[in-house]
Request: fold
Amino acid sequence: MRKPAVLITGASGEIGHGLIEKLAADGDRAIVTLDLAPLDPSLAKKVKSEIIGSILDRVALERILAEFEVDLVFHLAALLSTRSEFSPLTAHEVNVGGTLNLLEFAQQQSSTHGRPVVFMYPSSIAVYGMPSLEIKAAAGRVKEDQWTESTTMYGCNKLYCEQLGRYYARHYKQLSAEHMGQVDFRGLRFPGLISAVTVPSGGTSDFAPEMIHAAAKGEPYACFVRPDTKIPFMAMPDGVAALLALAKAPRAALTLPAYNLGAFAPSAAEVEAEVRRAFPGAQISYKVDVKRQGIVDSWPADVDDAAARRDWGFTPTYGFESAFREYLIPTIKRRYIGGPDL
Ligand code: AKB
Reply:
C-alpha cells in the first residue's frame, strides 16, 4: 500500500505555514500542497509534492488523485471577507466552487482506496450577522445555530460550504445505495487568527495583527475600526492545534458539522494597550473605515465554544495576555528586531 497522503490547499497562506511544520514533524503522511503561490522555501523542502495551481483546476486535482492516496484534506484556500466584497462573483467561484471540487475529490479519493477521507474545513465567525450593535452587546457569546445571517459574501460562502460538507458526509447520492458518503467532514469556525510569523491580507479581522506587526516594525498604523470594537481572536498556534486535534478526534464523538472556537475577545483599544506595553513608542491612531467597521460590527463580540470543548477536548493554550506576552511579542521582536532575549 502507498503511504497515505495529506492534501493542503491554500498551503502558502497563514494557517498553512504552521500546519506544514506540525504535519512534517509528525511524519506519518506524505504532504501534498496546492496553491497559486509558491511555498516559502523553508516549507517547500518539508513537502513531498508542491503543486502550483488552482483549486478550480480539475486537471490538477485529477493528477493528485492518480498519484497519491489522500485520506486527509485541509482545505484552507479561500478569498477572505474584505477581498470577497470587492469581487463577490470570484469569491463565490473560489470559496464555493473550489470547495465543491475538493469535496468531490475527497469522495472520489475515498471510493478509490475504500477508506473515509477526513475533510478539515476552516469556517469563520463571518458566518454570523449581528443585526445591530445593541443586539451584539446583548447576545454575548453566540452559539453555532444563532444569528447565522451573514452580511458578507465570504460568510455566506462559508455557511453554505458547511452545509455542503454535511451533505457529502451524510446524504451524498442518497438515492443510489452504492454511493454512500465517505467524506468525513469536520468544520471549525475560527475567530480572527493572529500569527507572529505572517501578516494576513484580505481579511477584516486584520486590524489586530496589522497593529502588532506595524508597531514591531516601527511603522505608524491607522486602525480601521473604532477602539471599542470587539470580536474574538486566537493565537495561530492554537488554531493549528485545533485543526490537528479535530482531525484526530473519534468520529463518534462529533455532533456538529462546524464548531465555534474561542480564546480571547479584546476590544481594539485593549489590543492597542498590549501593543503599547511591548512597544511604548508605537504610533497607533484610528481612521475608521465605515464600511469595514460595519462588517466587524456584524460579527459577534464572542463565541460559545462549549461544544468543541465537550466533544473533542478543545482547549486553547493562550489567553489574551499570554498570547501577547508569551507568543506574539517575543516571536515578533525576534523576527523584526533580532536577538534572543527581547
Ligand atoms: C477575515 O477577516 O475575513 C477572516 C475571518 C474572520 O474569517 N480573518
In short: The chain has a mean pLDDT of 95.
